[in-house]
């Protein structure tokens, strides 16, 4: 007999959940100032056409371009300065030549130089031991004045006689021939392109050196007297003094004081000569320099020796240069 099914228990109805959990608050986290590091850009692959900037100078100096510009600028500045100095020197020399060539009476200096021969222009003479006469060449021609107002001796007339030779003596040819034993070779103490120099003793016992100029020089009486006039103005302890002169026909003779102790060349290079000590050498050098300074600066008109050498420096007994 069938058993009737037992009734299944009935589930009680679910009671709705009236109690709900509060919703979780949705909070936004605070924003901070944190800087997010930026990743460096990826390296660029080297390419043959890529141009890299020049590396910075390790010493912190100027860029090469600026330095090159400074060098070029300095060079240009130096060049401009040199050009300016050269222009100044050229103008200065031209001005000096114009002043030196100024002649108020319109005298051509070249013509004057030809009309008055220059005794100093000589071939190199061979001088034996003894006196070597000093020869001079003067710079400015004789005139009454110059553009600067300095007085110059004027050319004397041939008839002026002793007026042109200040305190000079005039000698006859016979007097000088007698003094030199008729210009004998035993009294010959110097010779050269200018002529001959003989030692002589005058009637009063004065020892002199007589320079006889070679004939045929074309020097007239007027020109010779002008030459003597200028030489006679030279008075200095370190220069040989002119004692007098002689003019007869074409003969021209000059009479100088005699300096007895030979020449500097003889004492320096003569055979078996003792070595000159240092103090004597300095004494001679200073004396010669003083004589030249007088000729170049103090003498009126200025005189140029033009043949300075040991053979033309005479020495007296005290080794004073003449």
Automatic annotation (TrEMBL):
Its EC number is 2.7.11.1. This is non-specific serine/threonine protein kinase. SMART domains: S_TKc. One of its GO terms (molecular function) is ATP binding. Pfam families: PK_Tyr_Ser-Thr (PF07714). The keyword Transferase applies. Residues 1-15, 38-58 have a biased composition (Pro residues). Residues 142-160 have a biased composition (Polar residues). Residues 183-322 form the Protein kinase domain. InterPro entries: Kinase-like_dom_sf, PERK1-13-like, Prot_kinase_dom, Protein_kinase_ATP_BS, Ser-Thr/Tyr_kinase_cat_dom, Ser/Thr_kinase_AS. GO terms for cellular component: plasma membrane. The chain crosses the membrane at residues 67-92. ATP binds at residue 211. Keywords: ATP-binding, Cell membrane, Kinase, Membrane, Nucleotide-binding, Serine/threonine-protein kinase, Transferase, Transmembrane, Transmembrane helix. The keyword DNA-binding does not apply.
């Amino acid at each position: 007999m069938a058993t009737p099914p037992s009734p299944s228990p009935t589930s009680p109805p679910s009671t709705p959940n009236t109690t709900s959990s509060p919703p979780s608050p949705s909070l936004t986290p605070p924003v901070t100032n944190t800087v997010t590091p930026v990743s460096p850009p990826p390296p660029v692959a080297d390419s043959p056409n890529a141009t890299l900037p020049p590396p910075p100078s390790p010493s912190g100096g100027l860029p090469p371009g600026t330095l090159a510009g400074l060098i070029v600028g300095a060079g240009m500045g130096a060049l401009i300065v040199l050009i300016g100095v050269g222009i100044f020197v050229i103008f200065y020399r031209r001005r000096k030549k114009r002043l030196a060539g100024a002649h108020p009476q319109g005298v051509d200096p070249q013509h004057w130089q030809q009309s008055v021969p220059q005794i100093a222009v000589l071939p190199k003479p061979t001088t034996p031991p003894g006196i070597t006469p000093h020869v001079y060449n003067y710079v400015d021609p004789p005139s009454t004045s110059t553009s600067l107002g300095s007085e110059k001796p004027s050319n004397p007339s041939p008839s002026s006689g002793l007026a042109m030779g200040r305190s000079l003596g005039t000698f006859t040819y016979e007097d000088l021939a007698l003094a030199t034993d008729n210009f004998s070779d035993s009294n010959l103490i110097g010779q050269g392109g200018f002529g001959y120099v003989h030692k002589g003793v005058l009637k009063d016992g004065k020892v002199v050196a007589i320079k006889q100029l070679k004939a045929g020089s074309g020097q007239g009486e007027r020109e010779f007297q002008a030459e003597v006039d200028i030489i006679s103005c030279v008075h200095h302890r370190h220069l040989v003094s002119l004692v007098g002169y002689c003019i007869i026909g074409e003969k021209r003779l000059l009479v100088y004081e005699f300096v007895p102790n030979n020449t500097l060349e003889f004492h320096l290079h003569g055979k078996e000569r003792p070595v000159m000590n240092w103090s004597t050498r300095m004494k001679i050098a200073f004396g010669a320099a003083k004589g030249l300074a007088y000729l170049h600066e103090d003498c009126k008109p200025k005189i140029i020796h033009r043949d300075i050498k040991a053979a033309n420096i005479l020495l007296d007994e005290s080794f004073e240069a003449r």
